[in-house]
Write a structure and sequence with these properties.
Distance between the termini: 42 Å
Helix content: 55-70%
Number of helices: 11
Shape: elongated
CATH superfamily of the largest domain: Ribonuclease III domain
CATH architecture of the largest domain: Orthogonal Bundle
Oligomer: single chain
Low-confidence stretches: none
Order of helices and strands: HHHHHHHHHHEEEH
Structural class: mainly alpha
Length: 230
């Protein structure tokens, strides 16, 4: 078990208002069993959920300028889903600081993903009230960067072009660039050849009946080449 003060110190958080931190760590089961507890963390969960949605969306929007809104939505959902927020909570030992009722603790509440997720959202809500969006952003950005590596491995979330951008941004800090290097065939059956480069290095080529299709195939070719070099 960690006291709220020990938890904040280990997590690198500063709370001038200790009661706000304690409220963020108070599960409703503790409130039901302790008359000295004034409020549980469910209102802070609501606030933290909204802050996480906004900040994660803004972070993705700025980091991946070429990814369309549909895929940005799927990526955001992956980053703020219950299981991922529970992992964030585990990384800072949040479960050891939550104030739980005896029955909830006996049933393994400290390790339950849904409970950890809610507590993490409550903590984010408290951080927002304590320091504002900039402080929440500074706390979350390194965690989102790390979690994106896991999202990147789930090919169902991203098309090849978006996967390549995630790789390029994460590995070399650059945005892939696409250019049409050739086109041939009659107007009704035109074929396009697109090359993708990262920095000064050509990474792949693709052929398609539209420039967009060719770009996707160029990205897939680049990912295959990158994988073969890994």
């Amino acid at each position: 078990m960690l006291t709220p003060e020990d938890f904040a110190r280990r997590a690198g958080l500063i709370f001038r208002d200790g009661s706000l931190l304690r409220r963020a760590l108070t599960h409703r089961s503790y409130l039901n069993e302790n008359s000295d507890a004034l409020e549980d963390n469910e209102r802070l969960e609501f606030l933290g959920d909204a802050a996480l949605d906004f900040l994660t969306g803004a972070w993705l929007y700025n980091r991946f300028p070429e990814i369309d809104e549909g895929q940005l939505t799927r990526m955001r959902s992956a980053l703020v889903r219950t299981e991922q927020l529970a992992l964030f909570a585990q990384e800072i030992d949040l479960g050891q600081a939550i104030l739980l009722g005896k029955g909830e603790e006996a049933s393994g509440g400290r390790d339950r993903p849904a409970l950890l997720c809610g507590a993490f959202e409550g903590l984010i809500g408290a951080i927002y009230l304590e320091g504002g969006l900039d402080v929440v952003s500074a706390f979350m950005e390194p965690r989102l960067t790390q979690a994106m590596a896991i999202v990147f491995e789930d090919e169902s979330l991203l098309d090849p072009r978006s996967q390549l951008q995630v790789w390029a941004q994460g590995e070399v800090g650059l945005t892939p660039r696409y250019r049409t290097v050739e086109s041939y065939g009659p107007d009704h059956a035109r074929e396009f050849v697109v090359e993708v480069t990262v920095g000064d290095e050509a990474q792949g080529r693709g052929v398609g009946k539209s420039k967009q299709e060719a770009a996707q195939r160029a990205a897939a070719d680049a990912l295959a080449r990158i994988g073969s070099r890994a």
